[in-house]
Amino acid sequence: MTHTYQITGMTCSGCQHKVQTLLSQVQDVQNIDISLAEGTADITMAQHIPTSALQDALKDYPKYQLSEAHHTSEMDMQADTENRSWLATYKPILLIFGYILAIAIIAAYTAHGFMTMTAMRIFMSGFFLIFSFFKMLDLQGFADSYTMYDIVAKRFKPWAYTYAFVELGLGLAFALNIAPVIVNIITFVVMTVSLIGVLQSVLNKRKIRCACLGAVFNLPMSTVTIVEDALMIVMSLITLWSVV
Question: What is the pTM of this model?
Answer without folding.
Answer: 0.64
